[in-house]
Write a structure and sequence with these properties.
Elements: H1 2-15, E1 18-26, E2 37-40, E3 46-48, E4 54-59, E5 65-70, E6 77-81, E7 87-92, E8 115-117, H2 119-122, H3 130-134, H4 161-168, E9 171-175, E10 178-180, E11 225-231, E12 245-251, E13 256-265, E14 268-280, E15 283-295, E16 303-317, E17 323-338, E18 349-365, E19 374-395, E20 399-401, E21 408-411, E22 413-415, E23 418-427, E24 429-443, E25 449-463, E26 467-469, E27 487-490, E28 502-516, E29 522-534, E30 537-551, E31 554-565, H5 569-572, E32 577-582, E33 588-590, E34 594-596, E35 598-604, E36 614-626, E37 630-664, E38 667-703, E39 711-726, E40 729-733, E41 743-747, E42 751-766, E43 771-787, E44 795-797, E45 803-805, H6 814-817, E46 827-830, E47 835-845, E48 850-857, E49 865-868, E50 871-874, E51 881-889
Parallel strand pairs: 1-7, 9-12
Antiparallel strand pairs: 1-4, 2-3, 2-5, 5-6, 8-11, 9-10, 11-12, 13-14, 13-51, 14-15, 15-16, 16-17, 17-18, 18-19, 19-23, 19-24, 20-22, 21-35, 23-26, 24-25, 25-28, 27-32, 28-29, 29-30, 30-31, 31-36, 32-35, 33-34, 36-37, 37-38, 38-39, 39-42, 40-41, 41-44, 42-43, 43-46, 43-47, 44-45, 47-48, 48-51, ...
């Protein structure tokens, strides 16, 4: 019965087909345009114009249609046709500042709540990386210009610190429908952490490495990006391995002139070269290369970031416009370098570098049969070599260390008082991806249009590097152990080849429904379900987006969806933990005769193979209103993250041997075992212990152009309240070693953050002279943070590490439990006054191929201060900074 119904639907679709033909003309010189990609916005059926600019596209329904025309270097165009129109002539304009309309903000033509940034919006800031572009979105603010630390992003949250970074790990980035993966990154060495005496390089907490915290946006240059689409709400069922948002990047491919650009800002300079070559009417090729050099401080070169990247793309079509294939090859090389400061006696040297390449292919085929409209195959392979190194000269009293990985007592290496400590991490992350999509659009007699798509995908993540090593120069160098009988977590070599390949297998089915009831009453529903198998963890993820236009001026939207994010290799495979303890009173030394020490090593398993994917539930609703004076989009949302990844202390007790060291004059000391004793310590694991809720509302308003002033005005605003609730337990060791209570048990308290921000954009545009003046303002209206803590334990662990709850009335009893009560206070901060910042951009296109732009952050040089505890500090708004970019095309 089901087969009969399906055949009837197919038959209906066959009889409903219509063929649209047309021609595409260059508006500037009235010549035919070949290689233009034509797409039906309802069914995603497509075609490509031939050498004469002619095209033919099959539409599987009789409703009014909207065709999208796109070509590199031309302004994208959407053209509507009535159901009695079967021929069209399309005129495409050069995408320059001489266009009549230039959109420098997120595209206001949205199907649901997605935001689209075109070429002009990308150029609205002097972008050295993708991070600069995404700072324009609602809820984001411009940060200080500093490329000497990793950059990540998360949408629709007010969480800060570790919670924000953890959510950023769930933000997915895809280039030409191929995911950029950070799951394989195991460079956990953080080589530039400030010491107690302050940072060795003059700038606090410049962290280079980014495992578990999302994609480093510094690595993605914007010179080859054509369009960016940001889905902050519910993604299509096609996309997986995400919880916090989706960014779809489309790169340039097609014929284009040589474009050379040079940019400079503060102590950062960038050079770009791109070119598109038309091999024939059906083949074109693009290449681009980018070089960037950035110093943290113009006055010195201690901290330095360099990026070299290149790309090559080849697009080919067949003569019948049935096949379109795009092959992309890219390479990259990034270096974070912290050089030796001659005034630093420790002679620190830090380097974090990455070199690699990616190859991907996008294949589209329109088979000539009634069963399928399209078959798409996307595949990609990525390979990198990452190398982190930290070198420091050590000058201190005698210490000892061991490299043993076996539990027990081992003879220690007695380290000299002066030596060079070297630690390195080499990772070779490798990722693969393949996705197969098939599509079919049908329509029934009631003119309901269904665009079905079904897909299968697989991806893998592995790391084949040598891992963590402490013998980079052939000499054994170890982290220093504390003297005496103290204990310290030991450093050991760890081979990344011990990790297993992480695999993800997925399938999805989606139906995009379109129905036009009356002239302006339109219903859109995209609903589907995704099957995920993430290394054995299986889930079904329903997703739906919907909108209903009541009339041409009012539309309502709504949707919900589930998604998940697999843990990274660095979270799964941490390696065993080694606790080292010096026997006796430490190092035994008789000048000129011996130096002797023994270390008891306790081994605790460290891998977290029981980790499950984190999960996200998202829901949103909104309205779009088209007033005579403005277009208003309003969206309310609620996001809930469960099974989030976080660290957890784990109390451990072990019976260890008790030894006496025997000293007899000049004879080499020995030891004897005289019994056992209990050792209590805390180790760490990563668990699915975090839940988080983000609720908020955001709006985007695009005002009608003030034609008399050539002025476009738009604004966005975002309010979000985030509550992060960790289920992790904190343990506080008793200050009384003889007490029955070994650890006080303290539950984690939920933290709450709020942000309310707004931004305005004013664009003054004179098309005839190619002049654009853009002023962007940012306003932080509300920012609060509440981090409660508990001073008093809920319970305690006894000598057997058994939990005992303390009655609520006794938890503040200092006489009874004072030795496990901690003096840790919570914090609460609020923004005293509204913060404002203003950024300016001036761009000019010349007719001879030159264009120039000037950009300034905080061009009014605002410096708001606040007083706390009699200390005067400046609020963290972006500092004054300016730069310029020169472009030339020929």
């Amino acid at each position: 019965m089901r087969s009969i119904l399906f055949l009837l639907l197919i038959s209906s679709s066959v009889f409903s087909q219509r063929v649209i033909t047309g021609k595409i003309i260059d508006k500037e010189n009235s010549t035919a345009l070949s290689g233009v990609f034509i797409r039906d916005t309802k069914s995603d059926n497509w075609s490509i114009s031939d050498k004469d600019g002619a095209f033919q596209i099959t539409i599987p329904y009789l409703e009014d249609i909207v065709l999208n025309f796109s070509l590199l270097g031309k302004m994208e165009s959407n053209i509507a046709l009535k159901n009695n129109e079967n021929f069209i002539t399309a005129l495409l304009e050069d995408n320059t500042l001489r266009l009549k309309e230039v959109v420098v903000t997120a595209n206001k033509e949205r199907k649901y709540s997605e935001l689209t940034l075109g070429t002009n919006a990308i150029n609205n800031v002097q972008a050295f990386s993708l991070d600069d572009v995404l700072q324009q979105l609602p809820g984001q603010t411009t940060t200080d210009f500093n490329l000497n630390q990793f950059k990540n992003i998360v949408f629709r949250t007010a969480s800060d610190g570790n919670s924000k970074n953890s959510k950023a790990f769930g933000t997915s980035f895809m280039i030409n429908d191929i995911p950029i993966s950070n799951n394989e990154n195991m460079q956990a060495l953080n080589p530039n952490v400030p010491t107690l005496a302050g940072n060795d390089y003059g700038i606090r907490q410049n962290t280079f490495t980014n495992p578990n915290v999302g994609i480093d946006l510094r690595e993605i240059s914007t010179n080859n990006i054509e369009e960016i689409k940001v889905i902050q709400g519910i993604p299509s069922a096609k996309y997986g391995d995400l919880t916090s948002g989706l960014v779809l990047i489309t790169t340039k491919v097609g014929n284009s002139p040589y474009r050379v650009s040079a940019s400079i800002r503060d102590a950062t300079s960038e050079l770009n070269l791109t070119k598109g070559v038309k091999l024939n009417s059906r083949n074109s090729m693009n290449f681009g290369i980018n070089f960037l050099d950035s110093k943290a401080d113009p006055r010195d070169n201690l901290l330095n970031y360099q990026r070299v990247s290149g790309s090559l793309a080849w697009k080919a079509t067949d003569k019948f416009s049935k096949v379109k294939n795009t092959l992309n090859l890219s390479f990259r090389s990034n270096i974070d370098d912290a050089k030796h400061d001659p005034d630093n006696i420790a002679q620190d040297v830090v380097k974090n570098e990455k070199q690699g390449f990616s190859i991907s292919n996008n294949f589209m085929w329109k088979p000539s049969n009634i069963w399928l409209d399209g078959i798409n195959v996307n595949s990609g392979f990525s390979y990198d070599r990452q190398f982190s190194r930290k070198e420091r000269w050590i000058n201190r009293s005698l210490t000892a260390a061991t490299d043993s990985k076996e539990e027990g007592i081992h003879e220690a290496f007695v380290l000299p008082s002066q030596y060079t400590s070297i630690s390195t991490v080499e990772g070779i992350p490798i990722s693969t991806f393949v996705n197969l999509d098939i599509t079919k659009t049908i329509t029934n007699n009631a003119n309901w249009i269904h665009s079905f798509s079904f897909g299968l995908s697989g991806r893998s993540s592995s790391n084949k590097g040598e891992g963590r090593k402490s013998s980079a120069t052939g000499l054994i160098n170890f982290y220093v152990l504390a003297e005496g009988g103290d204990s310290k977590l030991g450093y050991r070599d760890y081979d990344f080849n011990k990790t297993q390949t992480e695999t993800q297998i997925s399938a999805y089915l989606e139906d995009r429904v379109y129905k036009k009831f009356e002239e302006d009453q339109i219903l859109n529903i995209d609903y589907g379900i995704r099957y995920e198998n993430q290394s054995g963890n299986i889930s079904l993820q329903p997703r739906i987006n919907s909108s209903y236009s009541i009339n041409k001026n009012f539309r309502i939207r709504g949707g919900f969806g589930l998604s998940s994010k697999a843990p990274s290799l660095n979270q799964l495979y941490t390696g065993d933990r080694y606790l080292d303890r010096l026997l006796g009173s430490g190092i035994y030394s008789y000048p000129g005769v011996y130096q002797k020490a023994w270390i008891l090593t306790v081994v605790t398993p460290g891998d977290n193979l029981n980790l499950k994917p984190s999960k996200s539930f998202k829901t949103e609703g909104g309205i779009d209103i088209d007033f005579p004076f403005a277009n208003i989009n309003l969206t309310a949302y609620y996001n809930k993250l469960t099974n989030g990844f976080t660290g957890q202390q784990v109390p451990v007790s072990k019976e260890i041997p008790k030894a006496n060291v025997i000293i007899n004059g000049t004879e080499i000391p020995t030891y004897e075992i005289v019994g056992t004793q209990k050792l209590y310590y805390l180790t760490n694991s990563i668990q699915n212990n975090t839940n988080s809720e983000d609720a908020g509302i955001e709006t985007i308003i695009n005002f009608r152009k003030i034609k008399a002033l050539n002025l476009d005005v738009s604004m966005n605003a975002s309010y979000v309240r985030s509550k992060d609730n960790s289920k992790s337990i904190n343990y506080f060791a008793s200050t009384n070693l003889l007490s029955e209570e070994k650890y006080g048990v303290f539950p984690s308290m939920p933290t709450t953050n709020e942000n309310f921000t707004a931004s305005f954009n004013f664009s003054y545009h004179i098309p005839k002279v190619g002049l654009l003046l853009s002023l962007r303002s940012e306003h932080i209206i509300l920012r609060t943070s509440r981090i409660p803590t508990s001073e008093y334990p809920n319970g305690y662990l006894d000598t057997q590490l058994t939990y005992h709850e303390i009655p609520a009335a006794e938890r503040t009893d200092l006489q009874k439990y004072g030795h496990i009560i901690r003096t840790l206070k919570g914090s609460q901060t609020e923004l005293g006054n509204m913060l404002h910042n203003f950024h300016l951009r001036l761009s000019k296109d010349f007719l001879n191929g030159f264009s120039v732009s000037f950009y300034s952050t905080n061009f009014l040089n605002l410096k708001p201060y606040y007083d706390k505890d009699n200390i005067r500090s400046m609020y963290d708004i972006a500092d004054f900074s300016f730069g310029t970019r020169i472009n030339y095309q020929f």
